[in-house]
Design goal:
By secondary structure, the protein is α+β, with helices and mostly antiparallel strands. The chain has one domain. Helices cover about 20% and strands about 20% of the residues. It is built from three helices and six strands; from the N terminus they run E-E-E-H-E-E-H-E-H. It is globular and about 50 Å long.
Amino acid sequence: MATDDAGSGGSAVPEPPDSPDLDLVELIVIAVPDASSTAPVAEALRALVAASSIRILDVVVVTTDATGGFATLEFEQVSGLTALRDVEGEVGGWLSSDDIALACDALPRDTTALLLVTENRWARPLADATRACGGRIVGGELVAAARMLPRGRRKPHNGAGGRA
């Protein structure tokens, strides 16, 4: 909930019903071999939107070259993303040029990627319950598969407790 502009502690002004829950906004970077291979990703995203699991707030398609440079592609130019063209809602304006450059720095060379800003609507009950008890969701991270090795193959933890 937002408060009035005067900041006088006056009555709270409810946010519009279509405003995203900012505690649930996430940037996801999906690397694919090339722009023509995006169709299955687009179909999966369409299904997640249709199920109200996520809302897409922004989509930027980027390509990196052999020298580490990058270019953005217009969403409409990528034929594999046809399934997303009629997805409900306003899409765009969430990622700055700095956000895009930072994401591209982490990509392998000669890669195409979708930079997605989504609202994780599936987590709304969790966010509401957390706020109801005075808390707030303050972070999250996708964990790389390489970090999730079977327990017996992990290096021992050197912290207190000596757990592996």
